[in-house]
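U., I forgot to send this yesterday:
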Amino acid sequence: MTTSFIELLGFGPQGWGLPLLKAGGMTLTAAICGFFLGSILGVGGASLKLARSRFLRTIGQFYTTVFRGVPEILVVYLFYFGGSVVLSKAMNVGGFPGFYSLPSFATGAIAIGVVSGAYQTEAYRSAYIRLDRGQIEAGASCGMSRLLLLRRIIAPQTLRFALPALGNVWQSALKETSLLSVIGLSELLRQAGTAAGSTRQPLLFYGVAALMFLIIGRSTGIVLMRMERRLAKAWSR
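Result:
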């Protein structure tokens, strides 16, 4: 007896609804972790590229050039397999023979974060260049410390100018989670492939995966758009 589409996507014994929802949650979690790690790296990278030292600027330029130029899937492979080799050698030296694999989720999130950070570096750097220097000079003349200037003037306005570009970086990070299926992470694409192979309904499950990616991307995009409008409204007063 042929199983209906509703049963296949449901939560019954033959349904794949719950595994797909869990995989969607894994996809969203990996994207969020990677994006926030990329934010830290992006701020650090932008600081390097804006530094007075030529050596520090060279380091920042090297970081963005490499990780924006190398395909994301190669970064995932290098971090996972390269990291596993290094870990295995370290464990072997310590008296623990065998091969040790790195956790798929942690490695994937780090790989996404490193790539995301390279793009966020340029977003923060460009946003900082757009700042009104008169406000910074006015704040300094009023006796504001560097930390206070950063908290009240530099950081909020930099985020305001960078947010549109960060929205694009977030969408890229979300889509890059599909690459983590190659290292065994049970994210949305991998789970859809498992369901498609088990039921012989590839069009159905890959179509559902595409729809879930669109829903997650659109929903989170709306949140970022509201943040952008709120920041713009605060500074237009």
